[in-house]
Amino acid sequence: MKRLLAVLAAALAFAAVTATPASAEPPIREIHQAGTQNCIDVAGADKADGATILMYPCTHGSNERWQFRSTGDGYSQVIAMHSGKCLDVAGGSISDYANIIQYTCDGGDNQRWRYVQSGQYLKLQVKHSQKYLDVHTRTDNLRHAEQDYVGILLEDYPSA
């Protein structure tokens, strides 16, 4: 009986040590505008809903770090690491040049993005309108458009 208990205890201890680890978190990334030193940035590191998203010279701050969390349908929520809020097409607009903001993640299709290969760069496409992330040339604010898009590069942010 003691031997059986010892074997069971050893088996339980082994099972506890070899348990399957939880799935790894998606990498944290900076999203760079192709051919520039600009990053997608939450203006002023604002944490509020509705904060402006723009292209800004990279400072490597947490308001320029993003995590792509899969929604299971080929798209991802793009989450600002400083606020925990999602990249969002304001008001769910389908109009060209609608503003891009950060907003509390709610699972809406206007917060689901995928990257699409475009030559040597990527472009971000939003699910609800199938339009692409673009940058307004005079203000550097991000918007979305059917034809226009900003080429991007994703760079994993060091995790240490």
From TrEMBL:
UniProt key word Cell cycle: no
Signal peptide segment: 1-24
Superkingdom field: Bacteria
A Pfam family assignment: RicinB_lectin_2
Coiled-coil region: none
Any one Gene Ontology molecular-function term assigned to this protein's record: carbohydrate binding
Transmembrane segment boundaries: none
Segments forming domain Ricin B lectin: 25-155
SUPFAM superfamilies, alphabetized: Ricin B-like lectins (SSF50370)
Keywords: Lectin, Signal
Record-given protein name: Ricin-type beta-trefoil lectin protein
